[in-house]
Amino acid sequence: MGKKTISLSLFTCCVDRKDTLRLPVGSKFGGGGVAGASETNVDRRERLRKLALETIDLAKDPYILRNHLGSLECRLCLTLHTNEGSYLAHTQGKKHQTNLARRAARDLKETQLMIAPAQSNVQRKVFLKIGRPGYRVTKVRDRDTGKEGMMVQVHLPQIKADVIPRRRFMSAWEQKREPPNKAYQYLIVAAEPYETIAFRIPAREIEDESDDAGYWNWSHWDPDTKQYSFQFMFRLLY
């Protein structure tokens, strides 16, 4: 049986090394190649600028400042920018966002310090009240000047040792027991361990002790009899 001879032709594709297309590492055939660093930065800044345009109103931005040269300054980061696009891109950057967070945290801390009540180291006195003291109120009038006033005597037989009674005048808006009435004011007398007592009196101006009628205004505490006495006069109504 005769042998058949098969001829194979081998074709070798030879490409001249000088004609080889050299592409950067990471690129693909048909692509435009890998963008350079400057092109990447430009693209990034443009994306940030567009994002900022959607979220920031320059008219309400408290940190933007246009100087006398026409450039823009960021007062938060102390940076200089040639145009609004550059500034807007900056506002979306890490530095500006970090400074915003720090500023917000500082403002929050200052607000909390302002709102938080001051802690006092003074301990509040606590004592058992034993009721109201006995008292007597007498209306007085100066025949020569026509001035009117009151004399008050408060009996405090169980007052604490070394305690001196105190008195003061209080406006109708300071007290919280009755609806405010501008026609009245209150005379307050306090002496531990008694309950504080208050007298509702006309809302007239009280005569100053330094005035010519000062001898009418006096107070006296007798530690032996435990009686607190005082007197005050109203100014004349003209």
From TrEMBL:
- Localization, UniProt: Nucleus
Question: So which domain of life are we looking at?
Answer: Eukaryota
The GO cellular component terms are:
catalytic step 2 spliceosome; U2 snRNP; U2-type prespliceosome
List residues of the Matrin-type domain: 72-102
Give the residue spans that cross the bilayer: none
| Keyword Translocase tagged | no
Key words of the record: Metal-binding, mRNA processing, mRNA splicing, Nucleus, Spliceosome, Zinc, Zinc-finger
Kindly state a single biological-process term from the GO annotations of this entry. Answer: spliceosomal complex assembly
List the InterPro entries.
Answer: Matrin/U1-C_Znf_C2H2, Matrin/U1-like-C_Znf_C2H2, SF3A2, SF3A2_dom, Znf_C2H2_sf, Znf_C2H2_type
Q: Decide whether keyword Transferase is in the record.
A: no
Instruction: Provide any one GO MF term from the record.
Output: nucleic acid binding
Q: What is its main location?
A: nucleus
Protein family (similarity comment): Belongs to the SF3A2 family.
**Per its record, how is this protein called by name?**
Matrin-type domain-containing protein
Q: What is the lineage of its organism?
A: Eukaryota, Fungi, Dikarya, Basidiomycota, Agaricomycotina
